[in-house]
Amino acid sequence: MTAPKPRTPAPELEVETVGGETWRLADQRPDAFTMIVFYRGLHCPICKPYTRDLDRKVGALAERGVSVIMVSGDSRERAEQTKADWGIENLTVGYGQTVASMRQWGLFISRSIREGEPAEFGEPGVYLIKPDGSVYCAVINSMPFARPRFDDVLQAIDIVIEKNYPARGEA
To answer: Which domains, and CATH codes, for the chain?
Structure first.
């Protein structure tokens, strides 16, 4: 498993979304970044407050030229339940990511240890993708804990845009 490095092309990503549309990374045209938040799925109690916080910040991200999607390997039914039960109102919710795609993105894969978990699922990751399709930033977790706070991400995006800060970690 190797995560894509900054300044290199992001892997392809195409997922269905709650609402019935197909979302493709290649089709995105943000002013600054596309933010992809990979979450574990409906079974994850830590994902709920994390994505709800992100949902409240979609407007602030859009003001900075950042479009956002949250993605998991969950089924359509589980993704619909996630959106409804978690009160997700502003985020695009993508579902059906394959384990092969998770591996292309460098996500850690876990096997079920509890009832209600999928047999295999991706652990969290947050990516910022530049409008040219290259990776700007990647934060990948092997556990559901210690994810970046979105208030910190907003502050970082402000600095990155203001100072035209280059992607790092490419070597």
So the answer is: 14-163 (3.40.30.10)
Q: Tens of pLDDT along 126-143?
A: 999 999 999 999 999 999
> DSSP character for 27?
G
Q: Letter for the amino acid at 39?
A: Y
Q: pTM surpassing 0.85?
A: yes
SS (H, E, C) 104-126: HCCCCEEECCCCCCCCEEECCEE
Check if the beta carbon of residue 30 is closer than 8 Å to that of residue 134: no
Tokens of 25: 């990374």
Of 45, 70, 46, 72, the C-alpha closest to 57 is 70
Give helix 76-86 / helix 47-56 axis angle, nearest 10°. Answer: 70
Q: Measure the CA–CA gap between 76 and 81, rounded to whole angstroms.
A: 9
Q: Which residues pair with 125 in a beta bridge?
A: 38, 140
**pLDDT at residue 1 tops 80:** no
